[in-house]
Write a structure and sequence with these properties.
The structure holds 2 protein chains of 2 kinds.
Chain A: H1 2-5, H2 8-24, E1 44-45, E2 56-57, E3 66-71, H3 76-90, E4 95-100, H4 104-114, E5 120-124, H5 128-132, E6 140-144, E7 150-155, H6 160-175
Parallel strand pairs in A: 3-4, 4-5
Antiparallel strand pairs in A: 1-2, 3-6, 6-7
Chain B: H1 2-20, H2 23-30, H3 33-62, H4 69-74, H5 81-86, H6 92-113, H7 119-143, H8 167-196, H9 201-232, H10 243-268, H11 272-294, H12 308-332, H13 347-377, H14 387-410, H15 418-424, H16 426-442, H17 448-471, H18 479-488, H19 491-515, E1 518-524, E2 529-532, E3 535-546, E4 551-561, E5 564-569, E6 572-576, E7 581-585, E8 587-589, E9 594-603, E10 614-622, H20 625-642, H21 651-665
Antiparallel strand pairs in B: 1-10, 2-3, 3-4, 4-5, 4-6, 6-7, 8-9, 9-10
The chains are: A alpha/beta, B alpha+beta.
């Protein structure tokens, strides 16, 4: 009986080890958003000054499946994901932008240099609307269905595998 | 070329570690002196190779050799030299080189200075050490090679995370790793003892100085990290119960328990298998910390690059090192039957209580750190366990522990007279009651917890001093005799008193700085004056300036009290263009009784922006320096104890020399 007592440490460790192994199979950067499945928050953002793109409001997000990308010209990961957004836009996916805490002149130059995948861009200079969207940091990308509900959220720059494995199948399903 | 030499030295070190991790075991089992001796030679050889590898890495960083990918990813040619060098261990691969280098340093220490260990035992200790080294060097070579070249080499590097560009943070990893890795010595001693099936007083005497050295380094390392968080992260806090902080705190708690239980093994041949278990757990917890930081199961400020292959490798390493040693423990430990029996009220009983409370505290932190991870892994929701949990569970465990500190230190071995000890602590009781009363009066009865915390701190300090006074029979014998007794007391007695006083100082600092902290958050423009805790803070002006590798906006505050100048504080916001990151440098006036702490925030928007208005946060942190001062006292006490004659390396040789000298005099 006493000998069994000495087995307790190794048994506890086995349990912890299995838990850690399962933990390894998950990606800690996936943060479940409380907003998933909910309608997008009500908002109405003005266009970026000096840019000929219209602004963005919650009304624009109803009627078709769209992506909403929160970005800024000062954000390096945004630069990294930009070519992927360009490719998505070229393949016909409607992408709307929320320009986060940016200077109007700089964003124009940035889009001029890298290309502009956005159909509409709302300027969120104070960052107030991003708070309603539960944005942790830029970039973040949301999938909005035809009823204007948030279906998926990507924190950080989109990666090619995100697009192939999650985003495109989801768009296909939503567009049914 | 230098990077290739470093890489080659790593491979060579792996080969030597493989020999060191196998032949000596065989030699020890066969009593083959040559094979056992091989452990020493290979340990020194391994150390030389890893020194070469580490030196090559430092050279690559110091000379900004951007053809090495690690340097290109983590350094920048315009950084000051100290941060070019610190960048060498400020990343996953480089910190592993530091890790194995320190491991080999300890191995070389045993090889050179472990002459008082029996040869088979030393061979086994070095063998176990080498096996740990094999695991980590292989991990490096197969998943995280620091010497990978980049072709073509970029013209300049990506930069080094600016919040790490700080003197305390440059020293934090080496210090912390000296602690983490030092616990591998206790582990190796425990495994060797389990293999031999023998734990005795001399085992405890050998293991204690190594554990103590690791414990000191760990204490300093944790304190540096927490001090850095205090002045660099800019929210005035110093401990956040972040999983990675906890990962360093758990081994510290286990090592503290081990230091105390090893005393019982040494003096009374009791608690043997428990002490062995603690030695294994202390190092296991530091391995677990390594896993948490590097596997990618956590997202944290501390987390290194995420790579599942690395996670799997470390988990396998953990399974072998921890699982294997605990299996060995389950198999061999039942045979370690301890001798000395003791009554519940005794020095042993006190140390056991210390161990139970520390182990429970450690388990509490463990649970709080891993529960969210395990819950999610088992398909549960994503939760986070924050400071409220730790405050609610950890603090209640510390109260009885602190209350017992002076009492336990005064109890006699085997069976003690509790009433007599409490009687001798009358003066400490009186002081404690006084502090509690003053605390309650000053806070008008609202600060019960704070008054209690300060009273406990006073109790620990006063009780420790009374214990020391009792040892030299102060006020009972003439002063001259007391002085003689004081000179004869071993250093370990003084260091115990000092360490416990340090603990009391830490508690006072934690209590006062969290209970009586003053805070003001406001928008100020040049010329404005704010007041907090009787001080007035005048914002003189805000100016931009150019640093070596950053641009900064610096505010100048003149702090006065009743019209008399107290300090000039210059908080900054720095922007590092290469890394494209901002950092905040708090302006701190550090004092014995309080820190005044000012942080410059974002510029204001709207009408006030024209006038140069900025958000400003001002804190008054009473006694906050006592936290790190207290830890420093504890660490110094540990180092002081290491110089005790008993631990001094080569003690037999010194004794022989003394005998020879005495013979010569005769």
């Amino acid at each position: 009986m006493r000998r069994l007592l000495y087995l307790i440490p190794v048994l506890v460790f086995a349990g912890v080890g299995i838990g850690l192994a399962l933990g390894l199979t998950r990606d800690p950067s996936i943060l479940p958003s409380a907003l998933i499945g909910k309608a997008v928050p009500e908002f109405d953002l003005p266009p970026v000054e000096g840019l000929d793109r219209p602004g963005l409001s919650s009304a624009d997000l109803k009627g078709q499946v769209v992506l909403v990308n929160v970005f800024a010209s000062w954000c390096i990961p945004c630069r990294a994901e930009h070519p992927l957004l360009m490719r998505l836009a070229e393949s016909g996916v409607p992408i709307y932008g929320i320009n986060y805490k940016d200077k109007p002149g700089q964003i124009g130059a940035w889009l001029g240099e890298l290309g502009d995948p956005f159909r509409r861009i709302g300027a969120d200079q104070s960052g107030r609307i991003a708070i309603d969207w539960g944005v942790y940091g830029v970039p973040e990308t949301f999938v909005i269905d035809a009823k204007g509900r948030i279906r998926q959220k990507f924190v950080g720059p989109l990666m090619p595998q995100d697009i192939d494995q999650t985003l495109l199948p989801m768009l296909a399903k939503l567009n049914g | 070329m230098i990077a290739e030499i470093g890489h080659y030295a790593l491979v060579l070190a792996l080969g030597l570690a493989l020999v060191q991790g196998s032949a000596p075991f065989w030699g020890a089992a066969r009593h083959d002196a040559a094979l056992m001796e091989l452990a020493r030679t290979t340990a020194l050889g391994q150390f030389l190779c890893l020194t070469l590898a580490f030196g090559a890495l430092i050279q690559a960083f110091a000379s900004s050799d951007f053809s090495v990918r690690l340097v290109a990813d983590n350094s920048y040619s315009g950084n000051p030299l100290i941060y070019k060098i610190a960048a060498a261990w400020g990343n996953h691969e480089g910190s592993l080189v530091l890790w194995v280098w320190i491991l080999a340093l300890y191995g070389a220490g045993v090889a050179l200075f472990g002459r008082n260990l029996p040869a088979p035992f030393r061979a086994r200790v070095l063998g176990v050490q080498a096996l740990i080294g094999v695991g980590f060097i292989a991990f490096m070579l197969f998943t995280s090679n620091p010497f990978v070249r980049l072709d073509p080499a970029p013209p300049d590097g990506q930069g080094f995370n600016p919040i790490l560009q700080d003197p305390a943070l440059a020293a934090h990893p080496p210090m912390l790793y000296t602690g983490y890795v030092g616990l591998s010595m206790a582990y190796a001693f425990a495994i060797a003892a389990l293999i031999e099936g023998r734990v005795d007083a001399s085992w405890a005497r050998w293991v204690r100085p190594w554990t103590l050295a690791a414990w000191c380094a760990l204490s300093f390392g944790i304190a540096l990290g927490s001090y850095w968080a205090y002045y660099e992260l800019g929210w005035g806090g110093w401990w956040f119960w972040d999983p990675v902080e906890n990962a360093s705190f758990m081994p510290w708690l286990a090592a503290t328990a081990l230091l105390h239980s090893a005393i019982v093994v040494e003096k009374r041949a009791s608690l043997k298998s428990w002490t062995i278990l603690l030695a294994i757990l202390a190092f296991s917890l530091s391995l677990l910390g390594t896993f948490l930081v590097r596997s990618g199961v956590l997202t944290s400020v501390h987390a290194f690059a995420i790579d599942p292959a690395r996670g799997v490798f470390i988990l396998a390493l953990l399974a072998v090192a921890i699982g294997g040693s605990l299996l060995l423990y389950a198999w061999r430990a039942p045979r370690l039957q301890g001798g000395g029996l003791f009554a519940p009220i005794s020095r042993e009983g006190g140390l056991l209580l210390n161990n139970l409370l520390l182990a429970t505290a450690c388990a509490t932190v463990f649970l709080g750190t891993l529960y969210p991870l395990l819950l999610e892994a088992l398909g549960g929701p994503k939760i986070s366990v924050g400071p409220p949990y730790f405050d609610a569970t950890f603090a209640p465990l510390m109260v009885p522990l602190l209350a017992a500190v002076p009492v336990g230190a005064m109890l006699a071995w085997k069976r003690a007279d509790l009433a007599g000890v409490l009687g001798r602590l009358k003066a400490a009781f009186a002081l404690t009651a006084l502090v509690a009363l003053v605390g309650l009066v000053l806070t008008r009865g609202s600060g019960v917890l704070a008054a209690g915390g300060m009273a406990l701190a006073a109790w620990v300090v006063a009780g420790s001093l009374i214990e020391l006074a009792g040892r030299v029979q102060l006020f009972r014998l003439p002063l001259a005799q007391c002085w003689q007794r004081a000179q004869r007391l071993p250093r370990s007695a003084y260091s115990m008193t000092l360490a416990h006083i340090g603990l009391g100082v830490v508690i006072a600092g934690i209590t006062a700085s969290s209970a009586w902290r003053g805070e003001a958050i406001l928008v100020m423009q040049p010329g404005d004056t704010a007041s907090l805790a009787g001080y007035s803070f005048k914002l003189e002006g805000i100016a931009d300036r150019q640093g070596p590798n950053y641009v900064a906006r610096r505010a100048t505050f003149i702090v006065t009290r009743d019209g008399r100048p107290v300090a000039t504080l210059t908080p900054e916001r720095r922007f590092y263009p290469v890394e494209r990151q901002s950092t905040s440098e708090a302006g701190i006036d550090t004092g014995f009784w309080r820190d005044l702490y000012v942080v410059l925030g974002d510029p204001a928007e709207g009408a006030k922006a024209e006038a140069g208005a900025h958000a400003v946060r001002i804190y008054d942190n009473p006694l906050v320096m006592w936290i790190w001062g207290g830890v420093a006292i504890m660490g110094i006490a540990g180092l002081w104890s290491l110089t005790d004659r008993r631990h001094r390396v080569g003690a037999p040789a010194a004794a022989r020399a003394r005998m020879a000298a005495a013979a010569a005099r005769a």
